[in-house]
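By convention, the token line describes the chain's fold. To illustrate:
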Amino acid sequence: MPEVPVASLDPRQQKLMENARIALERGNLDYVAEVTAQVLKAAPGCLPVRRLQRVAQLRRARGKGGFMAKTLSGFSTAPFMLGGGRKEPAKLLEMAEGFLAKDPTSVPALKMLAEAAGGLGLPETVAFALDAIRELEPANRANLLALGDAWLAAGKPADALRIADEMLRTKPTDGDAQNLMRKASIAQTVTSGNWESKESFRDKLKDEAQAVSLEQSAKVVRSGDMAQRLLAEALERVAREPANLTHYRAVAQAYRQQGDVGEALAWVRKARQQPAGAADAALEKQESELATELVERRLQAAEAALAAAPDDPAAKAAREAAGAELGEFKLGEARRYVERYPNDHAARHAYGVLLLERGQTDAAIAQFQQSQKGPQVRVASLVELGRCFRAKKLYDLAVAQLGAAKADLGAMDERKKDVIYELGSCLELMGRRDDAIAEFKAIYSEDIGFRDVAEKINAFYAKS
């Protein structure tokens, strides 16, 4: 079953999709969901339609709990092979679509969609489903590896490289991520050089030693000589193909693995200066992270100097200056990123936290009001809004936000206890003693040792 563009749909379906886009802009989400489901039933391989459907589903959900997650918790999380889904992938696809219509944030349902798409031979839809999981669970390593492989299967090695970069920034020695980087780099080179016409990869390389070097680049344990050799060869490839961003990434990664953050940053910036690099979001993010790490290292050095001479006024001043520099730098980077990617709700939330830390409460409120639209950061944004309103002594508004956050949470875990405690504290400040105690009792009945709830409950009954 091939994946098809909207232009390949019949005229009636194309008209329906145009109407659906207009309906989305007007907020008629039920109509969008209905029309996209109708079109996907006839053309399940039309990914643009599926993307439009998901936007409508997420907007409609607006933070509703992923209740289907428990129902589907037994669904296999094992990696799948493209085309290796269940015996009846069409029925599996129908099930996945039904679950996602009810809860678009259900990770098990998205895994089901990916497996069904694999069984139907829709590699880009597989990547779409796994990328949706990445947005919900950005630290899910198994999913990131599966997503990288899915992008390779879809013939998009640049996207696979982006995933490998993301993983290696978190853990530079991750062997699986290094292997993904190697495979994606080779695939991109094959695509750009038309190597598929050759008998084999090694024939094209001409040199056995170069083949061994590429294979060695995926190994976790590297000697100093091997690391230097890989760096030298990456530099040579940049000289031969100065427009190939993959080679710049390899040089930057090699320097970072050696601990030379300054050189790694310099090479990322060189890559960003290339025509294709200016618009590369992964490189942009990597540049910001490396630049931040350099400033953090200056702060660490200042702290070490202060620890060695705690009574030295110059060391204290240097530590304060380095801390202020880091705070301003992070704030500036966050602001620039949000200005460029205004629909990145997680980035808006992070920016709001930085603003709130610096006492810019009104500016932080504006960011959290936008970031709460993202399901993955909705609860966290509501809590931060509550704290902002509490800081401004707008206790009734704080209670409304914290109450909404509480309603979105299920089991009484640490996160929910924190929210309820904040809610109870605001109710206390409003003079609503009985309502506050009711919130503290909910925590007390589950965890008597949480903060000072035992003292609050005992004091309440003593006065009663």
About this structure: Confidence is low (pLDDT under 50) at residues 65-85, 193-202, 204-209, 218-223. DSSP finds 24 helices and no strands in the chain. Residues 281-308 form the longest helix (28 residues). The two ends are 71 Å apart (CA to CA).
